[in-house]
Structure formats: C-alpha cells, structure tokens
C-alpha cells in the first residue's frame, strides 16, 4: 500500500526550539494517520526532542495499520512509530522480519455511543449495534463491555460495519441504535445529540492498543539509533503528561496536525482520562501475552507464537 503523504519533521524542532543545527541521522518512519494518537511525535518534532537525539525523522502516514506494516516488512520503513499492536504481531507470526520495541497506546480509546434516549449499556437489549468484524479488536471490546452489563449475544443484534467511520454512518443512517467508535467521532456524535454509553478502557485493562515496531535488519545495524528514537518518544510523552503543558500541547496539535481547537481540547482530556499513552519504553510481558492470547482465540496467530519472538535483542526492554 502506498503511503499517500509524507511530512519531514525531524529537523523542524531545531527551528522551533532554537537548538543549533547539526548533522543528524536519518530515520524513515511510518505511522497510521491520525491527530491526537500521534501527539507525542508532533511534540518530538516541534519541541526538539528528535533533534536533541541527533535524529532527522521523515514520517509517512498511511490509512491503515496493515499498510504501515506492509511498508515496514518490505524494508521501505525503518520504524513504524505507532500502529495497531495486532498488525506487527500478526506479521511476525507469519515470518516478517519485524519486532516490537514499545507500547505507545496502552489503553483502547473505543467509545460506545447511542441514540438519544439510551442511558446505559444495559439499554441495548433488543437493539441493533454497529460493531467491527468477527476478529476485530473493536468487537472484542464491545463484547466485554456488554457482558459486564449483563447482556448476552442473543440480547442484541450485531451489525458488522467495518471501520469506525462506517459504524458511525450506520448509526446516523438509523440502521443501528448504537455503535462503537474512535475519537474524534465520539466528539462529533456528542455535538449531534448522540449519547456516550461507555468507555472501553473502563472495562478492559492490560491490553495494549498501539505499539512501535522496527524492521529488524535495520535495527540490528542501528541499535543505538533505535534506542534514541525511544528516548525522544519517552521524553515527548513525559512532556505531554505535564498538566502545565496542556494549553501549549493543544495549540501544537491545532497548528501541526490541523486539528480543530475543540477536538484538540476534548482529545487531551479524553486521552488523559483513559491513560492512553504508555509513559516509558519498558514493555510488560504480561500485556503482550494478553494480546497474543486474544489473537490466538480469534484465530489470527499460531499457538506457538511467544512473547520473545516479538522482541528486538538489544532494543526491546521488558519490565519483568
């Protein structure tokens, strides 16, 4: 899949922060397109964290995690900065020369929304809900949410509608009473009069959502460089976590990612509420095992896949 647009962001931080320009190591990176989920990488560029690590980072944005993973597998990218964590795991299981080096999104930002008049998840009994495909993570989260509220599969009608935008479209068209979506669709829905029924992060813990992956042949030759990418990411997430930086972070997302001020403001509060960003590069073995177990249950990976097969020696650091 061709990445539709590229942004050169590595050296921009030198201009913004007043840091002296110097020779930097080039890193060709990719990511699933988005605004708020890429916040740390906009910060790394515009606040100079990439430059401070001597990095010139070129990022290509794709419309799907599969597209980013395909580019990484083919060696067109050195690093996938943020991608659905199941995509590289599935690729590694099939023999792709990839490795996970960080959890980025530690909690799923799915939100269950519904028509006005609904008040709780339990109110979905007898209703039609727009969800993902059978082996989609969105479906897994939805099923956990409704089960916790006393509903069985026979209590509602599930409408598989693909990506979040399609699920929201089904709700708007009136063919569904509720839908599980991702930001900023939940913000848009709230303004249109739909109600929030629940947050996936309140029901599912210890299951990472997105991760950073590397092309192993590149990482094997550039271990120090890969570690510097992690350092810049850690520093950027720490900066974003400081409440004192709230207004500057929102303004940065508006200017760098062309987000609306309203969406940036809502996204900041929402991502903090669910504890979205993993604060450091140490990966929990237990959390990765949870993802593997889920992928096995849905038939996406082989039973022989292990956590250690996902790691890059010398780069991936586990929190035991």
Structure in a nutshell:
By secondary structure, this protein is of the alpha/beta class. It is built from 13 helices and 13 strands.
List keywords for this structure.
320 residues; alpha/beta; D-Maltodextrin-Binding Protein, domain 2; 2 domains; 6-stranded mixed beta sheet; 5-stranded mixed beta sheet; 13 helices; 13 strands; 40% helix; globular; disordered N terminus
User: Number of DSSP helices?
Assistant: 13
Q: Terminal Cα separation, in Å?
A: 37 Å
Q: Per CATH, which architecture of the largest domain?
A: 3-Layer(aba) Sandwich
Widest β-sheet, arrangement of strands: 1-3-2-4-11-5
Order of helices and strands: EHEHHEHEHEEEHEHEHEEHHHHEHE
Q: What name does the CATH topology of the largest domain carry?
A: D-Maltodextrin-Binding Protein, domain 2
Proportion of residues in β-strands:
15-25%
* Share of helical residues: 25-40%
The class by helix and strand makeup works out as: alpha/beta
Major β-sheet profile: 6 strands, mixed
* Integer-rounded radius of gyration: 20 Å
Low-confidence stretches: 1-20
CATH class of the largest domain: Alpha Beta
Question: What's the number of extended β-strand segments?
Answer: 13
Characterize the overall form. globular
- What integer is the average pLDDT? 91
CATH level-4 homologous superfamily of the largest domain: Periplasmic binding protein-like II
**Count of the domains:** 2
What do you see in this structure?
The protein has 13 helices and 13 strands. The protein has 320 residues and is of the alpha/beta class. It has a six-stranded mixed β-sheet with strand order 1-3-2-4-11-5. Strand 7, helix 6 and strand 8 form a beta-alpha-beta unit. Helix 2 crosses helix 10, helix 2 crosses helix 11 (246-257) and helix 11 packs across helix 12 (261-274). It is globular and about 60 Å long. Residues 1-20 have low confidence and may be disordered.
């Amino acid at each position: 899949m061709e990445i539709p647009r590229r942004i050169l962001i590595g050296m921009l931080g030198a201009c913004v922060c007043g840091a002296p320009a110097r020779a930097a190591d080039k890193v060709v990176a990719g990511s699933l397109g988005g605004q708020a989920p890429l916040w740390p990488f906009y910060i790394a560029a515009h606040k100079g964290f990439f430059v401070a690590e001597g990095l010139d980072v070129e990022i290509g944005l794709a419309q799907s995690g599969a597209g980013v993973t395909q580019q990484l597998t083919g060696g067109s990218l050195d690093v996938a900065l943020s991608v659905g964590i199941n995509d590289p795991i599935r690729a590694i299981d099939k023999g792709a020369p990839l490795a996970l080096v960080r959890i980025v999104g530690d909690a799923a930002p799915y939100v269950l929304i519904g028509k006005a008049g609904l008040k709780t998840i339990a109110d979905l009994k007898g209703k039609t809900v727009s969800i993902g495909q059978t082996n989609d993570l969105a479906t897994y989260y939805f099923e956990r949410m409704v089960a916790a509220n006393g509903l069985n599969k026979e209590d509602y009608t599930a409408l598989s509608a693909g990506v979040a935008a399609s699920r929201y479209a089904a709700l708007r068209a009136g063919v569904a009473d509720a839908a599980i979506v991702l930001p900023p669709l939940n913000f848009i829905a709230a303004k249109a009069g739909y109600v929030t029924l629940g947050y996936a992060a309140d029901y599912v813990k210890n299951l990472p959502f997105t991760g950073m992956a590397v092309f192993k042949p590149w990482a094997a030759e550039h271990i120090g460089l890969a570690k510097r990418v992690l350092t810049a990411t850690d520093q950027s997430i720490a900066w974003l976590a400081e409440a004192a930086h709230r207004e500057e972070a929102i303004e940065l997302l508006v200017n760098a990612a062309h987000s609306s001020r309203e969406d940036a403001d809502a996204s900041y509060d929402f991502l903090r509420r669910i504890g979205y960003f993993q604060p450091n590069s140490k990966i929990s073995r237990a959390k990765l095992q949870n993802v593997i177990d889920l992928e096995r249950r849905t038939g996406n990976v082989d039973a022989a896949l292990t956590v250690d097969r996902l790691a890059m020696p010398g780069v991936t650091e586990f929190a035991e």
